[in-house]
What does this fold into?
Amino acid sequence: MTDQTPTPEPAGRRTAARRRFSPTALLAVLLPLLTVGALALVQPEAEVAVGQAAEEVPVVQADLVCPPALAADAELAVAPAGELDDGTAEIDDGNGEPSDVELRSDAVTPLTGRDDAAFVRAQGAVAAQLLASRFQPEGLAATECPVPRPTSWFTGVGADADHASVLELANPDAGPAVADVTVLGRNGPIDVPELRGLTVQGGRTVSVDLAQAVPTRSELTIQVVVSRGRLGATMADEVPELGTREATRDWLPSTVEPVTEQLLLGLVGGEGEDTLTLANPGEDEARVEVRIVTADASFVPEGQEEIAVAPGTVETVTLTDQLRRQIPDGALGLQVTSSTPVTSGLSSVVEDDLVHAAPVVAVGAPMTALVPPGESSVRLAGAAGAGVVVVESFDDGRSLGEERLELTEGSGGAIDLPEGTSLVRITPRRTSVAASVVTTGNGATVVPVGDLVRTALVPSVRPGLG
It folds into this structure.
């Protein structure tokens, strides 16, 4: 008999069978792998550099550009603006090896026999206090030696036989510098191709006689833009000899840019003629109001109407009648206010001597100026608020005394300086005020007083973005 009972499988063995993976199980395995791979391919977002302001640091090197003398026997004067333990300045007029000049606190060092353009340099602590001026004793004239600037404006420039101006461009560096000169006239901009791309070699000075470059009978306004290197720009101004009239010279002051409010401070009394020149480099007509400034007020002179200056043009206005009778009554200067930015300049021929009022701005820090030889006074105007100003006079390092003047908003005044003053320091307290020095004697001249460039900006340099 056959046994049909099935033989049992050994314990622990499973029946061999095919198994299928479900879609859910497949996704459960693949999705984490794909996610990890995608994250590995993603680049982190580049960090965006946040703008960082330039760092303000003390000036450690200064270069001043002094123009050539207007005539023989000119004087070059150098001094520090404040207290100084010790220091030297280097004078280079291109005629030999540069020479060193010892500087002392509150003392002016006069240098004679240097009639050519000169560069005055200083390094270290004295750089932030360096002052230099050029004085012309004959027919008294004076100008501060400016620092090289990228842009300079000269308003009231002459280019004919009755009024002639010469532009001086001086390069204090070793490499060449390039400037473009723009000319505005009564009827608009004047195209002068030879004044574009003017090249000045290192350590040299280029003179541009405007009567030769752009002869015209009307007053001009000149803009100098330095496109390469550094240049110091100054303007020698002259009313030439004509018949019985003797020649008279002075330096025409510059401004940095057109503005809507400009204070021209420093009026000289006596018989004279006064011409206000206005230039509008913009595209809109400028409406200009002229006010006479006194110690405690400002007012529009009788009969003086608002002046319209067309776009891109220069306008001249004779103010002799309005100014000459106000100066004995305390007129200090002119306030020029316009609807759009303009440049302005006031030139006067007083007792046959050419004088330019100084364009100035109010400053709240101590100001120091070198004083030309003669009888001098400090003119103050446009105080920002109530305060006091201290005016201290020096000669050869010693104080000659000080004067104090109480100020209210918009006020000013005049303070006579002691005989022999060669340096003056003006210190406003709790306010700001504009100042100039008026000197008379063998003629007359006006010196603007302002704040020095005591700090420089160092840009923050960082790697660029990829």
Q: What stands out?
A: Helices lie at 23-41, 210-213, 320-324.
